[in-house]
Amino acid sequence: MARSAVDREADFRRVFDEHHRHVLAYALRRTAQRADAEDVVAGTFAVAWRRFADAPDEALRLPWLYAIAARVLANQRRSLRRLAALRSRLRALPAVPAQERGEFADVVAALRELQRDDQEILRLAAWEGLSGRELAVALDCSENAATIRLHRARKRLAEQLTKEEPAAGHSVGGDTE
């Protein structure tokens, strides 16, 4: 006979209450910071909730939770290694000249003035490096629609950049003295 959602939730709460401190202790012994251990515990119980129908008998629940925690911890460590590698690559890049930093700040300021949809498509294209096809998937539209939206957003960004130039002390038009 199938268990009701209420019974399933009550069983999970009992397992959580009974084993939370053990899983936290497990994670604390394997991480450098308490926040990381708490992230492992949260991830462990999130997976356990999703897979609760597959949970073993009560006698094996704690080892089952430890196995989940080990995988969550491994994922966390992989993420931290990727972050460290990214930081290392970024430190190895040459410093951006002050003039270019100012231009970048101008672009970011102009970007902030656009509508959220325009901001998102420009960020996906420029910062995330998505192609037209990938943009279509990310935006849940056809590739043609994504290409048109990107073109229009770029045009509005260019207009915003030229609009901001006079405020930055640049001259627009042919009148210079």
Structure overview:
Residues 166-177 have low confidence and may be disordered. The chain has seven helices and no strands. The longest helix has 32 residues, at 61-92. It has two domains: 5-92, Orthogonal Bundle (Rna Polymerase Sigma Factor, Chain: A), CATH 1.10.1740; 98-167, Orthogonal Bundle (Arc Repressor Mutant, subunit A), CATH 1.10.10.10. It has helices at 5-28, 34-50, 61-92, 98-113, 116-126, 132-139, 143-164.
Structural features:
Arc Repressor Mutant, subunit A; disordered C terminus; 177 residues; mainly alpha; elongated; Rna Polymerase Sigma Factor, Chain: A
For the secondary structure, the number of strands is 0
Could you name the CATH homologous superfamily of the largest domain? RNA polymerase sigma factor, region 2, helix turn helix motif
Shape: elongated
Tell me, rounded to a whole number, the average pLDDT. 86
End-to-end Cα distance: 88 Å
CATH architecture of the largest domain: Orthogonal Bundle
Query: Number of helical segments?
Result: 7
The stretches of 5 or more residues where confidence is low (pLDDT under 50) are: 166-177
CATH fold annotation of the largest domain:
Rna Polymerase Sigma Factor, Chain: A
Helix content: over 70%
- Which class do the helix and strand fractions yield? mainly alpha
Percent of sequence in beta strands: under 5%
Give the CATH level 1 class of the largest domain.
Mainly Alpha
How many domains make up the coordinates?
2
The Cα radius of gyration reads 26 Å
